[in-house]
Amino acid sequence: xxxQIVHDALILTAFTLVLGLILGVVYGITKKPIDEAxxxxxxxxxxxxxxxxxxxxxxxxxxxxANQMVADAGYSDTIDDVETAVDGSGNALGYVITVTAKDGxxxxxxxxxxxxxxxTVNGYSITDIGETPGLGMKAEDEEFYSQxxxxxxxKFSVVKQTPAxxxxxxxxxxSTITSKAMANGCNAALYYFQNAxxxxx
Length: 201
What we know:
About 40% of the residues lie in helices and about 20% in strands. The protein has about 200 residues and is an alpha+beta fold. The strands form two sheets. Strands 1-2-3-4-5 form a five-stranded antiparallel sheet, sandwiched between helices. Strands 6-7 form a two-stranded parallel sheet. The protein is elongated, with a radius of gyration of 22 Å. It starts with a helix and ends in a 5-residue tail after the last helix. The relative contact order is 0.13.
């Protein structure tokens, strides 16, 4: 009986080792292409909100401090990344601030917000969203996201009727929660820009 247990244990151990080795090899093969794909998607998001930029350079910031700053301002969002958008001569055009909105209707939404040095919001580009198809997913539609483009405002607010000013965003029908999550995320990015990145130049 004991010999059978030892035998089975050895087989199981060998099987686990082989499986682990196979998974390690597969991971090693796929890691680089996955990293490259993620990097390309990230750059595409940056370029979408800063078409005039020639390149994007990482901006050094204290993530914990940044998140505490926006939390103190009443936002549940996090500042995940800050990039300086530069032209061909290396001159700063503004920033791309990646935020994660924690208050979507189906969970978190991660997107990059482009803000020019003069405070103009170029718009946003979503990199991760899991909202309801036909409702919250419309945050990816031009009809909605275009409302955030080329707006020089202190912050956005969501309304259910036709906007009366640049700072008003008409909510997605049946998805006010997602609409507010997107507006709040943009507002968190704006707040960080205004209070930590020097604001309007």
